[in-house]
Amino acid sequence: MSIKRPYRFLAALALVPGLTGCFASPGGGSSADGGPSGSRLRVALAFPPAENFSPYGADATLLSRLGVTEGLTALDANGGAAPALAESWRRDGDRTWRFTLREATFHDGTDVTPSAVADALTRATKAKPAPAALAGVRLTAKADGGRGIRITTAAADPVLPMRLSSPSLAILSPKAYGKGNPDPVGTATGPFEITKVNGGGSATLDRFDDYWGGRAHASGIDARFVKDGTARANAVRTGDVDIAEAIPVAQAATLDKATLEEAGTTRTTSLQLNTRSGPFKDPKLRAAAREAIDTSTLVKGVFEGYADPGVGIYGPAVTWAESKRVKPAGRADAARPDGTRITLATYDNRPELPEVAQVVQQQLEKAGFEVKLEVREYSRLESDALAGKFDAFIGARNSLLDTGDPVGVLAGDYTCDGGYNLALLCDKNVDRAVEEADGTDGTGERQDAAMAAEADILGTDAVVPLAHQQIIAGVSTKVRGVVLDTYERTLVNAGTRR
Asked: How far is residue 334's CA from residue 398's CA, in Å, rounded to a whole number?
């Protein structure tokens, strides 16, 4: 990681909107040892639900970070599949896997049965758009005996156990599936149960006493969705919250070092260029945009050392990537922008992004583009971005979030049928490379194929990697057990307490 540089000091904290009084905790006795009768946790999250807590889209990660939902598997520290609702599995031939379920209970009191799991996975395969973890994958799930479920894919899928760890493939009870998107309120399996949702502003979670992994230490969670990063940092500083995610790098210096936690992450901030319509349909103008960007300026000036310059879709936290990286080929020669007008969009839930966008705007304008910048809250931006209503989009994406498999983000974000294709890229060479990578078995071979596909994607200039980030969280000194995992799927779990 980069060496941290001196922080900027932001004054006028008195002008920062506070959160005093927002986190009054109902009930929940505390215990000296932080045991099962522990206090409630007050958590500030950066992103409000964008799709009414649907597990099939961006909200899936909110649910997993709060300890609400689980899949058949999870990811271990090395990125491999680990047991979750499935206690074991085995491969039966090239296309079929059999998973053995553990004894578990849904929040509504019904048992986690093979038929309920099969139904949940089948519904995920029919979701529109498809969950990113299922991009390019066709599977069928059927109950197999009293504790088994048999999953068959149309083509061999050597990473199916990793794929099923995706937050977007969480298992919900049959009660969750009515009309429209499934409802995780009272229907999931994690250590905490959603009991109340107040629009996009807050949610109340209570401990689920019948959790298969044992009762959580905290009696519940009072979650608030606070898009203002300075307000989140200020709430930690004043003791109004116990945990706040996504602390702005510019606010790190205002927090006591004892309340500041950081970790490496596979998250990359990138500039996505609309390849389907508008000026960046021209690969020569995309090349001009790429050549205009100075990533070192972003790392020094915006991220203040809490990031590394963008080198690809996979950054330094993906430890094997650099030694296998392939140089992009076939890039178009850059054209002169000559005042070409473009609209650049980003969101303010991650506080660095508007500042990143301003720097990128300046760099593009210096190169000859005329840039209109649009900044919104993420839930008001995502649908327009996916519909191609902007010429360029700056976002932060965890490259291994969806499946833990390096091919997953390529299929979901850069293929013709990808469910999160912000660049709207549809390139036959890219699709072919991703398909070849997806059919590759063996860890090393699959990594090699993923890097070859990355080179093809970068060669289109549909995406310009800007920076590879770190996680910064504010955590009260009274809190133990916060989980800052590389994949950003977990924040609190059964062991988190104060």
From this structure: 29
The pLDDT of residue 10 is above 60: no
Residues near 60 by Cβ (< 8 Å), separated by ≥ 6?
Answer: 54, 69, 131, 166, 167, 168, 170
**C-alpha–C-alpha distance, residues 358 and 348, integer Å:** 12
| Phi and psi, residue 415, nearest 5° | -105, 165
Contact 285/335 with Cβ under 8 angstroms? yes
Question: What's the rounded Cα separation, in Å, for the pair 185 and 376?
Answer: 27
Position 276: which residue type?
A: R
The span from the CA of 73 to the CA of 88, in Å, is: 9
Report d(CA 122, CA 404) in Å as an integer: 21
What is d(CA 157, CA 446) in angstroms, rounded to the nearest whole number?
12
How far from the centroid of its chain's Cα atoms is residue 200's Cα?
Answer: 18
**Joined tokens for residue 454:** 């990355």
Mean pLDDT score, 159-184: 92
Look at 175 and 404; give whichever has higher pLDDT: 175
pLDDT at 62 over 80: yes
* Residue 171: C-alpha distances to residues 22, 56, 115, 176, 473 (Å): 31, 11, 11, 10, 28
pTM metric for this prediction: 0.75
Give the residue among 216, 196, 221 at the shortest CA–CA distance from 206: 221
User: For residue 125, which of 89, 154, 161 has the smallest C-alpha distance?
Assistant: 154
Q: Which of 259, 255, 316 is nearest to 2 (CA)?
A: 316
User: To 5 degrees, how large is the angle CA 194–CA 146–CA 133?
Assistant: 50
Amino acid present at 7: Y
DSSP state of 124: H
Amino acid at 395: G
Q: Are 327 and 456 in contact (CB under 8 A)?
A: no
In this structure, the number of other CB atoms found within 10 A of the CB of residue 198 comes to: 11
Report whether 222 contacts 40 (CB < 8 A): yes
Q: Where are the alpha helices (DSSP H) in 332-377?
A: 352-367
Per the CB < 8 A criterion, the answer to whether 458 and 328 are in contact is yes
Measured CA distances, 143 to 97, 139, 342 (Å): 12, 14, 52
Per-residue pLDDT of 223-262, as tens digits, reads 999 989 999 999 999 999 999 999 988 898 889 999 999 8
Query: How many Cα atoms within 13 Å fall on the side-chain side of residue 240?
Result: 18
Q: Which DSSP string do the residues of 246-279 spell out, in sequence order?
A: S--GGGGGGS-GGGEEEEEEEEEEEEEE-SSSSG
Exposure on the CB side of residue 31, measured as CA atoms within 13 A: 11
